[in-house]
Amino acid sequence: MSVDLYPLLRQYHWDGKKIIVAVSGGADSMALAALLHRAGVVITLAHCNFGLRGAESDGDEALVVGWAQEQAIPVVVQHFDTPAILEQEGGNLQETARDLRYTWFEKLRVQSGYDLIATAHHSQDAAETMLINLLKGTGIAGLHGILPQQGRVIRPLLALRKETLLHYLQTAGIPWREDSSNQKDDYLRNQVRNQLLPLAEQIVPGAAAQLYRSSLHLQEAEMLYLESVERYRKRLLEQRGKDWYIPLLKLRHCNPLGTILLELLKPFGFTAAQLPDLKHLTEAETGKYINAPAFRIIRNRNFLIITAQEARESNHILVDAGTEQVHAVHFDLAGRERQMTEALMQEVLQADAREAAHLDLAKLEFPLVLRPWKTGDYFYPLGMNRKKKKVSRFLIDQKVPLHEKEKIWVLESNKKIAWIVGKRIDERFRIGPGTERILSFFVTLH
């Protein structure tokens, strides 16, 4: 069976580009590397060794490096001490590994002056993603599955079946290795791959291919959907100064009301979970309102008015190393660096989390960012055994009143939340036996 990627490369204008190829040593990525090399693309192989499977991981690396040398293809290997990173920062193994490799791929791409990063997702991966998103209840954007290109990342194999790739490898005599962890049902994707998709294939032969074709239709349907949403946005959303007005008379004549209303309000941070209340607001009395983290929507006579929350009008505040005073909208912070001692450890253990935060200075990356919390924020609350939690859920569990939530700010270190000010620090930045210096912040409310 002949497989030629050049027509696809030309279709997406990827021909003539220099491409970093993510290669694990598995069948999919080895096929991708071989096919791009055969098509005459300038490539460099990038292999991540996460050190999670001992000799098996080292065997994957040896295979990739050996094959690259035989083909005279440049190859770069990056080792990660993943267990140590998880121990230090907490988090989910799959998410951590994904963040590590994509961050490194992009760094390598920039340093080497390459154009794109190629990954080996194929049609079965697209079908799996579509099923996972369907099970999670995502909207149309989730149902179209994996896209051929997102930013600098491309997926040249999306239209190909796994069986096609395996046949090509066997015919061409290209080696690959099986990752034993793929057979374990420890993760949702593996469960879908090993249980749900094979069952779907038994019920409807060719189900994976049909799902992939459906995802292509949904990609086009999403384009039409977004065009329609944009027309409603131009018709219904009017900016007046810093506020946005939606005329209720026009809105009530729209169908379907719920979908249109949600699409108008999503950019302001309102969510699908709030839709019943938002629809009710269209019939409520003047003065009623609903909050999102950064905005509030108010019923005022014949309009819904979207206005910024007071606390969100301030810019983010950068906190450099050695900063002693920080002034925010609803509070002030006093910063203080200190050498860790036994007496200081006792002070830290007895500290009231509402009044102060004590962080391991070595784990922080400056400048820190002090900003209002927003929808989608998450952290690993101290005392919760390194379990990730959305800030919104944490505030609900803490029974923070609605009008107080807009006053909540977070302190970030390299895009990781280190502290919900006045509430809880993040497990990844806590003080431990190896801490040498700490950074304390003392809170004074206005």
Automatic annotation (TrEMBL):
GO molecular function: ATP binding; tRNA(Ile)-lysidine synthase activity
Catalysed reactions, semicolon-separated: cytidine(34) in tRNA(Ile2) + L-lysine + ATP = lysidine(34) in tRNA(Ile2) + AMP + diphosphate + H(+)
Record-listed E.C. numbers: 6.3.4.19
Main location: cytoplasm
Entry keyword annotation includes Transport: no
CDD domains in UniProt: TilS_N (cd01992)
Span of domain Lysidine-tRNA(Ile) synthetase C-terminal: 368-441
Keyword terms of this UniProt record: ATP-binding, Cytoplasm, Ligase, Nucleotide-binding, tRNA processing
Family matches, as Pfam families: ATP_bind_3 (PF01171), TilS_C (PF11734)
InterPro entries xref list: Lysidine-tRNA-synth_C, Rossmann-like_a/b/a_fold, TilS/TtcA_N, tRNA_Ile_lys_synt, tRNA_Ile_lys_synt_N
Positions with a binding annotation for ATP: 24-29
Key word Lipid biosynthesis present: no
Record text about domains: The N-terminal region contains the highly conserved SGGXDS motif, predicted to be a P-loop motif involved in ATP binding.
PANTHER family according to UniProt: TRNA(ILE)-LYSIDINE SYNTHASE-RELATED
Entry function: Ligates lysine onto the cytidine present at position 34 of the AUA codon-specific tRNA(Ile) that contains the anticodon CAU, in an ATP-dependent manner. Cytidine is converted to lysidine, thus changing the amino acid specificity of the tRNA from methionine to isoleucine.
Family note: Belongs to the tRNA(Ile)-lysidine synthase family.
Descriptive protein name: tRNA(Ile)-lysidine synthase
